[in-house]
Design goal:
Layout lengths: L1 E7 L2 E9 L28 E10 L4 E10 L2 E3 L10 E3 L2 E13 L2 E8 L28 E8 L2
Antiparallel strand pairs: 1-2, 2-3, 3-4, 4-7, 5-6, 7-8, 8-9
Length: 152
């Protein structure tokens, strides 16, 4: 589901929400401990995902945005995950901000700070037989992005 709402001529709010109801049905894939994975969600598929973005056209040449992104809890199953059974990654929310500056019709500058709050879900690095059941995925922390575009 998505939507857009012009708040003023200079402000635009857009949002998107995705609900995914996934479940393993049959197939007989076991976890490392031999238990059945039937009934567990599909690997790395969050049930809930959402984003909200506010765009601001400050002037004809300057535009900025702020973006919030949520990804819900995910599971990782099967032999290849390094655990005895499924692993769970908690949901997380990140925020980005950016600005676009159009110098003229042939030259534009863009910059952004991604994951402004430096949100990182800790990786569970315990061993298979030491209770490993948590996050497996490395997150990108706060980072800076910039570009210059020249067209002719």
């Amino acid at each position: 589901m998505n939507g857009r709402l012009p708040i003023t001529p200079a402000l635009l709010l857009t949002a998107n929400y995705t609900y995914t109801d996934s479940v393993r049905k049959g197939g007989g894939e076991p976890a490392f401990d031999g238990s059945s994975l039937d009934g567990t969600p599909l690997d790395k598929t969050p049930r809930h995902m959402a984003n909200v973005r506010l765009d601001w056209q400050a002037t004809e040449q300057i535009a900025a945005y702020v973006l919030g992104y949520y990804s819900g809890k995910q599971t990782f199953s099967g032999f290849r995950n390094g655990a005895l059974n499924t692993r769970t990654r908690e949901g997380s929310t990140t925020f980005d901000v950016g600005i676009n500056f159009t110098i003229n019709e042939n030259f534009a500058l863009r910059a952004a700070v991604l994951n402004v709050t430096d949100k990182i879900v800790p990786v569970d690095d315990r061993g298979r037989f030491d209770g490993l059941d948590g996050n497996w995925m490395l997150d990108e922390g706060r980072r800076f992005w910039g570009t210059a575009t020249i067209s002719f």
